[in-house]
Amino acid sequence: MFSPVVADLMAMPLPTIAAVNGHAAAAGFMLALSHDYIFMRKERGVLYMSELEQGLSFPGYFLSLMRAKFADASTLRDIAVERKIIDAAVETPEATLEAAIRMGEQLAGRKLEGMVYASIRIGAFPELCRAVGLVVEDEEMIKMFNAKL
After folding, report:
1. At a CB cut-off of 8 Å and minimum separation 6, what does 112 contact?
2. C-alpha distances in angstroms, 115 versus 14, 88, 147?
3. What distance in Å separates the CA atoms of residue 19 and residue 73, rounded to the nearest whole number?
């Protein structure tokens, strides 16, 4: 199962950044979507869900993740039509990685309190966190989970 990876990213005590250099389908799309920031190559990458073409249904936590990130139907439409899901689109794989690293350096410079960041993220996406096994209401459990990372 892929849900433990999503749980780890949701409980991470710092901002997470995905650098996508090519296509991200199905679980790859969900992996990118599980991050706080997404940087992607402009000309050679596509984010999409391939389950329908393959005759597969979505795992429940995939749907929870999509509902958590895309609040309403018009947002889903905008994402599908205008691809507004990423934070930046750059020219090359190297530039994608460089942009993600720059964002990481900017965020690190803010000296964010990790447990506060994680608790805000978990609080912002409670349905998703429950779907991947995080106990949202139990702050001690969140601290214990983060200690394992």
Report:
1. 14, 15
2. 8, 27, 10
3. 26
Name the residue with tokens 């530039």.
95
How far separated are the first and last CA of the chain, in Å rounded? 18
- Whether the CB-CB separation of 122 and 143 falls below 8 Å is answered with no
The DSSP code sequence of 53-83 is HHT-PPPHHHHHHHHHH--SHHHHHHHHHH-
pLDDT of 84 > 60? The answer is no
Domains contained in the chain, CATH given: 3-148 (3.90.226.10)
What is the enclosing helix (H) or strand (E) of 45? none
The mean pLDDT value of the chain amounts to: 77
| Contact predicate 44/91, CB 8 Å | no
pTM assigned to the model: 0.64
Judge whether 129 and 24 are in contact, CB under 8 Å. Answer: no
CA distance 18 to 90: 13
Amino acid sitting at position 121: R
8 Å CB contact between 59 and 29: no
